[in-house]
Amino acid sequence: MAGFEVVVRPVIFPDIRPRAKQSLAPQDDPEKGLAVISGNPAEAVGLSYSWSASASYSKPREKWRRVDGVRVFQMKEPEGGGGGGGGVNRKNYIDAEVANKIAMEEPGGGQGPVLPPGTAEQTPGGLQEALQYYYYQRQREDSNIEILQRNTMRYADE
Predict the structure, then answer these.
(1) Which domain holds residue 125?
(2) Is residue 151 domain-resident?
(3) Sign of the CA dihedral 147, 149, 153, 158?
(4) Phi then psi for 67, rounded to 5 degrees?
(5) Which of 1, 48, 92, 140 has its CA 20 to 30 A from that of 100?
(6) Whole-model pTM above 0.70?
């Protein structure tokens, strides 16, 4: 005999396992425990949609400026490289605009109380906007600066 060295492997047949419990509706109320979903699928759902945006600023914005058109010519190098002017080169120039008055709209203009005369201008919509005026020295003609136009208006919305 083999003694204690015999290995035994048990065999479990599927027919001896218990069956899983089946869920059945109780006999007294067959509707008990069931969820009922109802409604009219043809009904339209109306969802509202709205959108808004606003902006504000805390620094003055430029409304318009009055400028002078100038032409600035290049200065020639002096002979010998020393001090003093060497003349004007009229073939090489740039055209520029030099502001002499700028109107800036202050923050919150048109929303506050009526301002004293001279500090507000009437707009087409009837609101008043507070304008601050900045004045600058006018450009003078020089040997290399020629004034082309005076008092041309430039508006911010252009």
Answers:
(1) 61-78+85-155
(2) yes
(3) negative
(4) -130, 160
(5) 92
(6) no
